[in-house]
Amino acid sequence: MFIMNENEISNRIIGISIEVHDALGPGLLESAYKECLYYKIAEAGFKVEKEKALSLVFENVKLECGYRIDLLVENKLVVEIKSVEALHDIHLAQTLTYLKLGKFKLGLLINFNVVKLKFGIKRVINGVLE
Question: Which helix (H) or strand (E) holds 55?
Answer without folding.
Answer: strand 48-58
